[in-house]
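Field: sequence (string)
Field: structure_tokens (string)

Example rows 1 and 2, in order.
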Amino acid sequence: MRFTKTIKTLALIAGIAASFASNADFLDFQIAETPYGGEIITADKLNGGYTEIINFDNAGNFTAVAFASMNQLFGNDGTANSSQVGSVVGANYNLYATFSASGRVVVPGEFGSNSSLKGEAGSFSLFLDKNQDTAATDLATLTLSNTADDELLGFSNMLGENAGLLYGFGGVFDFMFHNFELTAQGDTYFVSPMPFYMSVRVDGDLDNIPLEGEQFVTGDVSAVFDVPEPSTVAVLSLGLLGLGATRRRKS
């Protein structure tokens, strides 16, 4: 059942993405893992899993908060996994992200979906957890435990092009955050390019959910860095690539 749903999802998004031109690429970045027993490596995507709470009101609006482990780094256009690129993430240290969004529900949805979520505001933050012990103790308020050793690497409070599409067999989301800014700690972790990329795209999948009350959601999530593009459809095409790579990893 899960496999069938995945095939349908990928086929549908492929059709959407193929209908429009896009030059979205996996852009390389270098990170210094030397403080954690590794080396300077080249990657182009972060990947992991997320837990999220979405609240729907009775007026067509939603708010969402999520906690995501990002303990896989990919390279070679998203095809080489952490061990293949020489990363020690997940073994010697952890990466995690928090993100939020608020906006409106559209029924029927965009791009032929049953319904869609259109974010109007949001944020994304990326952290490094040296002791590998941070957990979300209260997801609804993004209350985290064991954060004393954690370092904020970068953040964005500017939500750009985005789409969350819900179909009868599941859904996908793809959100771009602009003005991504590295902290001082982030400058020592992300060592190339300099200056660093100004945008980060966050995409993933989700199961069907009712558009009412508080909903608990889990799924796969990916993040890539990019330069700003004006097209929401370009975001969707990159979401196809990220979701496809994630599914190949799980099969």
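Row 2 begins here:
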Amino acid sequence: MSERVTGAGEPTLEDLRQRLVDFAAARKWEPFHTPKNLAAALSVEAGELLEIFQWLTPEQAAAVMSDPERAHRVRDEVADVLAYLLQFCTAVGVDPLAALAAKIERNEHRFPVPDGDDVGSDGVE
């Protein structure tokens, strides 16, 4: 988990994962950071992200980031989702970058590029 999140000088995914480990340890939260609890927290935070978009039209949803207040909420919820995902991965011993790379590889085989004009699903699963 040592790949860079963004450009030079930015923290790596591993740096952020370790900060989360240290943050929880300093507060003695480790007993609560079980896989079940972290998966539940991840689900709750993903739900909070969804709540921002719940009743929006597709056009309104596409424009969410142009509203500073909503954009701030989106960024906060994305951060919460990523934080809990990284903590979950730590708890169960999954390298999230390796898991994603393997999943993309499997999906490339499961959903080959269509020939000609056959445009199919969005390819997300």
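free_text_note (row 2): The helical segments are 13-26, 35-53, 58-62, 68-92, 96-110.
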